[in-house]
Amino acid sequence: MKYTVNEFYIEADGKRILTKLYRPDAKGRLPLVVFVHGLGADNMNFARYATALAKLGYACVCFDFCGGGFGSRSTGKTTEMTPLTEVADLEAVLREARSWDFIDTGKTVLVGESLGGMVSAMTAAKHQDAIAGLFLIFPAFVIGDNARRFKTKDAIPETVDYPNWITLGRQYYIDSWDIDVDGIIEKYDKPVCIIHGKEDNLVPYAYSVKANEAYADSTLYLIDGVGHELNNPILSEPATQQLKEFMTKI
């Protein structure tokens, strides 16, 4: 199926969020898939996934978090970004996208990777009536444990280089410290699919095993021979196939 890609900005709370819509050339209301990138990345991280689904008739949205990555064209700095500011950005994108007259709002799915997976889980827990399904790729459920490697909140410096490639602000770790991952998971009872590489050194796959057991309706796929690599074909090919199958059940 043919599709078009339109680029625009969403204005929210004084911020500008760079957004891309992959819109299929199809009639009627379309299911909505919002792709949520990880730390340091941008909307292009999910381009091949969005293209694959747009060709099947799904309206796909990719965007840049404010301060979320090196190539972000949204406003903000990495030192100003926290998981909570990213939840607010995602909520703004969802409000905009779900207002479009060609969207079937009852079929809204979040696809998140790494920090974007954690943010997607948080957002779905807050708005589960609006989110019909979650597709998580090595979701960063490790986030609270990473923050608590500092002995106290007072011990967190003003800026932190993590992991020796991106500079984050103190508030990122303060907000992460108090995230109740178990509570977030318990609140969401709609379908979830989790994909995780077994060689992941940034987010050990044990966190996804635990999440899969805790979600009410979840399926887990562990992939051998790949780590924290969204676009490595070892992971991306089975992940894309599982995403296509997941969408048919929503």
Residue share in helix: 25-40%
Number of helices: 8
Contiguous uncertain segments of 5+ residues = none
User: What fraction of the residues are assigned to beta strands by DSSP?
Assistant: 25-35%
Compute the average pLDDT: 97
Describe the overall structure:
- The structure is a single chain.
- With 250 residues, the chain is of the alpha/beta class.
- It is 32% helix and 27% strand.
- It is built from 8 helices and 10 strands.
- The strands form 2 sheets. It has an 8-stranded mixed β-sheet with strand order 1-2-4-3-5-6-9-10, with helices on both faces.
- It is globular.
Give short descriptive properties of this protein.
8-stranded mixed β-sheet, 250 residues, 8 helices, alpha/beta, two-stranded antiparallel ribbon
Itemize the secondary structure elements and their pairings:
Blueprint (H helix, E strand, L loop, with lengths): L2 E10 L2 E10 L5 E7 L10 H8 L4 E5 L19 H15 L5 E11 L1 H12 L6 E5 L5 H5 L11 E4 L3 E4 H8 L3 H7 L4 E6 L8 H9 L3 E6 L9 H16 L2
Helix pairs in contact: 2-3, 3-6
